[in-house]
Amino acid sequence: MARKTTQTRKAVVTTIAWIIGFLIFFPILWTILMSFKSEGDAIKAPLAMLSTPWTLESYGEVQARSNYLRFFMNSVIISLGSTILALVIAIPAAWSMAFVPGKRTKDLLMWMLSTKMMPAVGVLVPMYLMFRDFGLLDTRTGLVVILTLINLPIVVWMLYTYFKEIPGEILEAARMDGASLRSEILYVLTPMAVPGIASTMLLNIILAWNEAFWTLQLTTSDAAPLTQFIASYSSPEGLFYAKLSAASTMAIAPILILGWFSQKQLVRGLTFGAVK
Amino acid sequence: MNMTLRALLGATALLTLAGVATAETTITVATVNNGDMIRMQGLMDDFYAKYPDIKVEWVTLEENVLRQKVTTDIATKGGQFDVLTIGTYEVPIWGKAGWLVGLNDLPEAWDKADLLPAIAGGLTVDGELYAAPFYGESSMVMYRKDLMDAAGLTMPDAPTWADIKTAAAAMTDKSKEQYGICLRGKAGWGENMAFLTAMSNSFGAKWFDENWNPQFDQQPWKDTLSFYLDLMNEYGPPGASNNGFNENLALMQQGHCGMWIDATVAASFVTGKDSTVADKMAFALAPDNGLGKRGNWLWAWSLAIPAGSAKVDAAKAFVAWATSKEYTELVASKEGWANVPPGTRTSLYANAEYQKVPFAKMTLDSINSADPTKPTVDAVPYTGVQFVAIPEFQGFATAVGQQFSAALAGTTSLDDALAAAQELTKTEMTKAGYIK
Question: What three-state secondary structure class fits A32?
Fold first, then answer.
């Protein structure tokens, strides 16, 4: 009886999970479906739209109008660059906070997180002026720097949480065996924290890939990533749903594929230490 | 030795000259995503044939993203753009602030005198033209002639608001999801407030009196909003408080609207290939109330050069080409007269071929009936037909738009919406120093 109840419960929970999952995925699915319709069909009522012919017309128009590869490469360079830079800074920072905490470590962590609470537009003008004066406007270097700074608090927090799970005695043993600080972090700590570092890296790549405020404000053409590619297909006056959907599908496809193949690592990393 | 030195110097000079002669200037053009601008990007071969040493880099963005981006750039003198696509709202403000390069010295052949006076007036500050109009638009009534015929009604060329209400009532059949009228309800200074501000002009309302005191507590605004809410609640589509240009366009194209009062540029969409009612559409001027002002707006997407640009000469060459009569002819030769950017030049409307385009005359009449320098029945201290050309307008007009959109959605009453609009506008104008 108890087993039956458990199975029923399991079925209900699974069904609810699938429904929630479908609801979350639905906007993406709908975007993909609309991208294969003509502009005229894309604005039809949802059910009527599905029965209209499928076409690659919008993809053709988007390809003809925009240099997708340039936007794509910028996105790749910016998101990978900012992620690597953030990890280089955050791993030693998280190590010191986890294994050699000071009196103010917790305050410092909270302060770092609090920088994420301010709306980005609040610092747009000073940031823009600094970028202008340092010659960083519309450069990939500038975007790597800003995205690193934006995501650094999250990266440090995540790594700090993973490092806290690693017994300090292991590092102590390495030290007793004569390992230098560099060797301790590189050859002892890092291999043990690989799942955590991998999931932090993946999450940071996704965050950087999707960042759409600074990447739109600080670029024009040379460093413009896929967020600008998408923004160029929206309009308050005119029919653009199909083309916008095609552009969006092309922009999110790489990160969706990356997420699909790395979902195990992502889930493992994100739930690391959640259950003791 | 001397000979060798001379030869070397001569060669260097020649190489330098050759370098200068072939040096390419790249200008960055920020533009909105609309059909006319995208079409221009496909016709650049003509420009490159005329100016082989100028390369154009396009930055196409959604209107609101573009506005925020170019405003930041121009205010901080970032210098990221050499040509900006801006509207009649920005030009007077930015021109007065010294942020734009004057265009009075464009070549004589460009023919400044040929610009439609209403459009040129909106782009001129103290006698200096600060932007060259690329396309101009007003608003007008687009209606289903077949439904009017079926109801035994005839839409006058210059209808009154009473005519509109009668027609909306006659064309509404909610059982067939057919609504007499579709109007903007989505909140925003460029969304419902563009329509409602233009509409209020024809009801004798105004944003401010001559001392910049808000006027939402006066009867004409109450009449405007009350008429709009009645019309939409009785004969409008459900969920109208979420409808902007694109949502209404979709409804009209699918045959759900009897009438739509919106931008003249929509005429080419509702008669285009994606419309199921293309052959049933007819047009009329925006309505009035017999007070001497019609409820139509005036807008022109225009090309301007920011004062921070280091490539002003190349930028001027591009602006002159893109807004010339020759460009119009180029578009006509490639894509037909119906696709020519409308609403900027008198000569276009004198062209016998263009006169054959069904909405050409109504567009011209609509533009000519709007006067940005005298937008309302009474005298006002501001310019702009569907906006008030002051920097603070975007902020508080959007907040007022949210109140009116809420009234349409039924979450607040007409009186409360007007009272809130009055209060918040007064607060903002006091803070900005207009009200002492």
Answer: helix
Q: Which residues of B touch A128 (CB under 8 A)?
A: 72-73, 76, 78
Amino acid making up residue B65? V
Nearest to B303 by CA among B123, B57, B117: B123
* CATH fold of A66-232: MetI-like fold (1.10.3720)
List CB contacts (< 8 A) between A213 and chain B.
none
CA distance B260 to B114: 31
Closest residue to A240, CB basis, from B33, B69, B265: B33
A43, amino acid identity? I
Tokens encoding B350? 């004198």
Instruction: Write down the mean pLDDT value for chain B.
Output: 91
Provide the whole-model pTM. Answer: 0.82
**Cβ-based neighbour number of residue A55 at 10 Å:** 14
Task: Kindly identify which residue of chain A lies nearest to residue B69, measuring between CA atoms.
Answer: A217
Contact A128 B64 (CB under 8 A): no
Domain ranges of chain A: 66-232
Q: What is each CA distance from A232 to A71, A240, B74, B83, in whole angstroms?
A: 12, 10, 20, 17
- Tens digits of per-residue pLDDT, B337-374? 888 999 999 999 999 999 988 888 888 998 988 888 89
Contact B327, B321 (CB under 8 A): yes
Q: Is B62 within 8 Å of A236 when comparing Cβ atoms?
A: yes
Neighbour-count burial of A128, counting CB atoms closer than 10 A to its CB (0-12 exposed, 13-18 middle, 19+ buried): buried
Asked if residues B270 and B253 have their Cβ atoms less than 8 Å apart, the reply is: yes
Residue A30 is inside which H or E element, if any?
helix A2-34
Region at B410 (left for phi over 0; alpha for psi -120 to 50; beta for the rest): left
* Residue A64 contacts residue A218 (beta carbons within 8 Å): no
Angle at A128 between CA A126 and CA A131, to 5 degrees: 110
CB contact under 8 A, A217 and B72: yes
Domains of chain B, first to last? 19-130+298-355 (3.40.190.10), 139-297+381-431 (3.40.190.10)
What confidence score (pLDDT) does residue B21 get? 46
Q: List the structure tokens of B45.
A: 């071969």
Inspect the interface and report whether the beta carbons of B76 and A128 lie closer than 8 Å: yes
C-beta neighbour count of A7 within 10 angstroms = 10
> What ipTM did this prediction achieve?
0.77
Taking CB atoms and an 8 Å cutoff, what residues of chain A touch B248? none
pLDDT at B6: 66
- Give the nearest partner residue to B274 out of A40, A129, A233, using CB atoms: A40
- Residue B58 makes CB contacts below 8 A (sequence gap 6+) with A221, B29, B31, B41
Q: Identify how many contiguous H helices and E strands chain B contains and give both numbers.
A: 19, 9
User: Hey, what are A276's tokens?
Assistant: 């003791």
Determine the Cα–Cα distance for residues B30 and B59; give it in Å rounded to an integer: 5
* pLDDT (0 to 100) of residue A3: 57
Of A39, A129, A238, the CB nearest to B34: A238
**Closest residue by Cα to residue B123 from B146, B96, B163, B160:** B96
A252 contacts A35 by C-beta, under 8 angstroms: no
Contacts A–B by Cβ distance under 8 A: 94
Give the CB-side neighbour count of residue B8, counting CA atoms within 13 A: 5
Q: With CB atoms and an 8 Å threshold, state whether A128 touches B61.
A: no
- CA–CA separation, A66 and A64 (whole Å): 6
On chain A, the residues whose CB falls within 8 A of the CB of B64 are: 236
d(CA A167, CA A174) in angstroms, rounded, equals 12
Contact B92/A at CB under 8 A: no
